[in-house]
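Supplementary Text 2. Reproducibility record for the structural model of the 282-residue chain.

All settings were left at their defaults, and a single model was retained for analysis rather than an ensemble. We include the record here because the model underlies the residue-level annotations in Supplementary Table 4.
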Amino acid sequence: MPVIELRGIKRIYRMEGRQNESAVVVRALCGVDFSAEAGEFVSVMGSSGSGKSTLMNILGCLDKPSEGTYKLDGIETSKSDADAFAYIRNRKIGFVFQSFNLLARTTALENVELPLFYRGREKGRKRQSAQSRKERAVIALREVGLEKRMDHFPSQLSGGQQQRVAIARATVNDPSFILADEPTGNLDTGMTLEIMGLFQELNAGGKTIVMVTHEPELASYTKRIITLRDGELVSDKPVTERRSALDDLARWKRDHALLAGEGQAPGLLGAAEKYAAKKASL
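Retained model, structure tokens:
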């Protein structure tokens, strides 16, 4: 059974016009069929206005389709009420956002504990002890390499470290899948490669990941690419030449070391620097 199964998903927005003007109908999604099995790493691509954000909101149970069905782990979500949506978001989906969305006045450990705290407030379920929550959060932070930064506040962490905290928060509840929205959009090249390497490691460990991105370079680190255009899914292809983010990171560091040692001599611009230049031009 697929972890994610969308059939005939349509999302139509009706915006009322001004006086004496007819309503404007926007068809953001036009009958999208999409599924993902456990252990897949899928990137969702498309230009502005293609329907990426709308699809992400539906996948994340932040919005409901106008038509069609969305089953997550076999649960039909399209008819769920607000309480069911909250339960699904907390237990089934791990969110990673471009802007990290960490609470500024709480430590890394406390940020990661937050989903466990809300999980303990579910009706009819025994509240998880504070010690148990802390132990699980510590394990999640250790898995992303931040065991020595647990007591730091977000302002004391680099962008890459903040995103690692966000990933630990997304995985602490062992969700059915991780939904990442432009997760490296605020990071430099080195940190981007670190985060993509972490995603690849999590995926190798069995985590299902869906990543929304507009960058083909990032999509090449995933296993499958779906492309949207004008609200329709126009392409669904496997990544035939998948890149290793950690290998690219090692090359990037080596190239940087050479540049630092030789004053940016001609011919030493490596693949990572070319990627950085292209990213900066977008």
